[in-house]
UniProtKB/TrEMBL annotation:
It is found in: Cell membrane. Pfam families: Sugar_tr (PF00083). This is MFS transporter. CDD domains: MFS_ShiA_like. It is a multi-pass membrane protein. Keywords: Cell membrane, Membrane, Transmembrane, Transmembrane helix, Transport.
Length: 424
């Protein structure tokens, strides 16, 4: 590191806060995705058909993606006006509180339509909180990075994703091994949601010890904060916002195809047990972490944009092997595709922590990075499990693979229009 680097203890605290906080947020998000694939359809919706119940559960899963841009606007506004630290604490509290409350929800059998209504409200709260989480965590890392280390610092919030996924799915796997199916459906699924209170406490303890980022402090010295960050963003930086939004479509599409959709498909259409398929996914998620770390180092050697474009090209190709590998029924080939997909996810996700903040000046950076990331999440991930389920029901896995290739092509085109980035 250079002389401008933070002191060692401060640097460790900053990177831990950006990683652990995001891991907590994504743990909350992933346990919902797993529960939606496994039990929410049966517990919170009337019995009509197993497929209709699963589609309803996926619809509640999608709801949070539409709440995320609203959270991005809300938290981005205060993050650009008041600072990164307090906003990050508030977003963590909102999502954590919503997750813990899901643990005590009544089921449809207990409360009728009140049960899915409350589930949707809390799911909205999860999405609203996460809308302010990622952008703040990325800015916390990259705005404290010394010269030449921006992408490697920016990869730490991204590493929270596999950490949260491993914690979430590992816990579900453990519960599946220790509990009977009846116990799991009756009360076992509630445990991961209740345990979120411990993780939120850890995240708050770390974040409350932080100071404000140098970039935000410098921006305040140069000019008063933007009165309406969203308005300034859309008026002065519309092309950067559009490019950033579509650049993230690929990472969301590939992730939710290899996690939420694959889990539902593997346990219903392919007939694998929940424990078996969760174990396969856990065996593949490490490749995502490898991809993120590789992307961080590679981005600092070249540029985040180049790494993202390379990952998108490879993801277009991966779409064509989805059907033969996932549809083979072979657990080894399924693991192989999930490993490839999640590694590529690392390549198209890892550089975003440095890429998106670099599209916007500091005075609207929280709003800009958060809006691009979360609106892109709607386009790339919000409806992906539902669309993929409908495509596979009608035409098998071939159209699902084409859907993945198309999503990656959209991001590749958007990245081609990005020519210049600001200094973070």
């Amino acid at each position: 590191m250079t002389d401008t680097a933070q002191p060692a203890a401060s640097t460790r605290r900053i990177l831990a806060a950006s990683l652990i906080g995001t891991a907590v947020e994504f743990y909350d998000f992933y346990i919902y995705a797993t529960a939606a694939s496994l039990v929410f359809g049966k517990l919170f919706f009337p019995a009509s058909s197993a497929s209709a119940q699963l589609m309803s559960a996926y619809a509640t899963f999608a709801l949070a993606f539409f709440a995320r841009p609203l959270g991005a606007m809300f938290f981005g506004h205060f993050g650009d006006r008041l600072g990164r630290k307090s906003t990050l604490v508030a977003s963590l509290l909102l999502m954590g509180g919503s997750t813990v409350a899901i643990a005590i929800l009544p089921t449809y059998e207990m409360a009728g339509w009140l049960a899915p209504l409350l589930l949707c409200v809390l799911r909205f709260g999860q999405g609203f909180g996460l809308g302010g989480e990622w952008g703040g965590a990325a800015l916390l890392a990259v705005e404290n990075a010394p010269p030449g280390w921006r992408a490697r610092f920016g990869m730490f919030p991204q590493l929270g994703a596999p950490v949260g996924f491993i914690a979430a799915n590992g816990l579900f796997l453990l519960l599946g091994l220790l509990l009977t199916q009846e116990q799991f459906i009756a009360w076992g699924w509630r445990i991961p949601f209740a345990l979120s209170v411990v993780l939120v406490g850890l995240g708050l303890w770390i974040r409350l010890r932080l100071t404000e980022t140098p970039a935000f402090a410098k921006a305040l010295e140069e000019a008063p904060p933007a009165k309406a960050p969203l308005g300034e963003l859309l008026i002065r930086h519309p092309l950067a916002t559009l490019a950033g939004t579509f650049a993230v479509v690929a990472c969301f599409a590939i992730f939710y195809l290899t996690t939420a959709f694959a889990l539902g498909y593997g346990t219903t259409q392919l007939g694998y047990s929940r424990e078996t398929f969760l174990g396969v996914q856990l065996g593949a998620i490490g490749f995502m972490a490898v991809g993120i770390i590789l992307a961080g180092y590679w981005s600092d050697m070249t540029t985040p944009r180049r790494v993202l474009m390379a990952g998108c090209v490879a993801t277009v190709a991966a779409g064509f092997v989805l059907a033969p590998m996932m549809g083979s029924g072979s657990i080894l080939l399924i693991w192989g595709f999930l490993s490839i997909g999640l590694f590529l996810m690392g390549l198209v996700y890892g550089p975003l922590g440095a890429f998106l903040p670099g599209l916007f000046p500091a005075r609207v950076r929280y709003t800009g990075a958060s809006m691009a990331f979360n609106v892109g999440g709607i386009l790339g991930g919000g409806l992906t499990p539902i669309i993929a389920k409908a495509l596979s029901d009608q035409g098998g896995l071939g159209p699902v693979g084409l859907y993945l290739s198309g999503a990656a092509a959209v991001s590749l085109i958007a990245l081609a229009f990005v020519r210049r980035q600001v200094e973070v």
